[in-house]
Amino acid sequence: MNLKMLVQLVLGLSLLVTLGACGPKNNSASVCVPPSSNPSNKLHFESGVPCNQAAALNEAVSSLVTLPLDSSNSSVGLMARTMKTDDVTPAGLQNWMEDRVQYIINGDFKIRSHLYTTNQPFSYSEPNILPDAYTNSASVQGAQIIMLNVGTEVYANGKLAKQLYIVDLPGIGYVPMPSPRTGMLAIGPGLFNSLGGAQSAVVLNIFRLGTLFHEARHSDGHGKTLGFMHSVCPPGHDYAGLPACDLSTNGPYTIGAMMVKNLTNACTNCTAGDLLSLRAMYLDVANRVLDPAKAPIGLAPDASAGMDWDDSPEGSR
Amino acid sequence: MLLRVWTGTILPREADKMRASRAAFLVLVLAVLGVSIAFWLKHPSPESAVVQAPTPSSLISEPSPTELSSPIPTGATAPSPPISLSPPPPAAPQVSEALHQQFLDLSQEVFKSIPTKSQLAKLPPEEVHYTPQVMFTASVELGKIAQMVSDHPGLASDGLKFYKECAENEESPTSLRASCYAEFQRLSKSSGVSSDAPQVPQSVSDLAQKVM
Questions:
Q1: What is the pTM for the complete model shown?
Q2: For the segment B119-143, what is each residue's pLDDT rounded down to a tens digit?
Q3: Chain A, chain B: beta-carbon pairs less than 8 Å apart
Q4: Which of A43, A75, A307, B61 is the most exposed place for a label (fewest CB within 10 A)?
Q5: 3-state DSSP: chain A helix, strand, coil percent, rounded to 5?
């Protein structure tokens, strides 16, 4: 073996190792830089997340800098009050999100086969109080637990089982779940469909940021408001019969809609086409916050319709 | 010279009288001449008037505030329609037949992309957790209409027709109907093109208010 062959072999092995860092589903055409090493945010990607998806999510988070919000704007002020933050700068918003989202896993990841418990005792706060969706689905007319925020789901299941659950994430390691604020999201290809590049990057970034902040809100709440569970949409609604609506006025759909609206308003280089696309996406989400008059009956007083729910998180990270 | 001929044979006293008469005659002639000039200046004949081309600003004279606020006397006939004080919206530029056809083709494609409410109801729950793919696609497609109308203002009338039809389609999701309704209002205002407003239920117009 001469020197040239040796160099080629080393280069080939390096490339394989680099690509392997992003798992078998990597469909990025370029060489993948492990996204968890991105210094611009605190997101950690499980190794099964395709590199192009991780890169797209990182790009969306980075785009916050290009869409600075006007804190004197009333709509931005309302969002800040709803999110209970004084800092609506790009860095401040990113911190808010990263307080609630840290781990990103592939939507196909079989989390049940990666769950562990510990022999050490763990005490949950409000141990016997869970959202109605967990304890009595009939009272919210068949609401289902549909969350891309799998971290909160794992936490709630641990609470039900009175055990601390730990998730083994490939490429990251063991992640204990003592709080929904641990923040673990599963992402699917729907978030990354580019429609053949038919829309501009800014539309995709704002859409993805809306989704991220929506999911981040699912890491909040406690007791009956834990996870800000969705409710079934009433008859006549676009998503009638589906668990795609919010009873609260400060839930995930409100947060996601406010982000899309304010980022759209901040977009100075959006075209007329971009603006209409983003307004339509905003209305799809904003329309999911239910009118109290159309809410189901029999709700817990502290998780009722038409009001801000208590967003204090359970447990501690 | 004439005066000298006359004065050659007349007496001094008579000469004074004659001088006074000539002065009076001169004053009379000048007075008649002055009155004539004044009359001519005040009432020039059409033939002698200088014709000036009207300037743009003189075409629409701005009435004084008192004219605007003066009530019409009882029994008087209402004046003809008042002249608009605001400049008329610029006439929409003509578009070629090819461009018009291109817009109609795009409209068909966009209408096809809009899902029905019954189609949404059949989606799996996990897909509707956030904006589902079909709604994302339809939103992007709607944007193409706005972009084309923005690039070609002559398509404003076609755009309004599209948004009206989109807003009034009862099969379509409320959020997309509201988007079209709001865009109709926006385009109608900015283009100055008049069109019948879409007839929509309150749920659509209420939602549209969030983006208007």
A1: 0.75
A2: 999 998 888 999 999 999 999 999 9
A3: 123
A4: B61
A5: 45, 10, 45
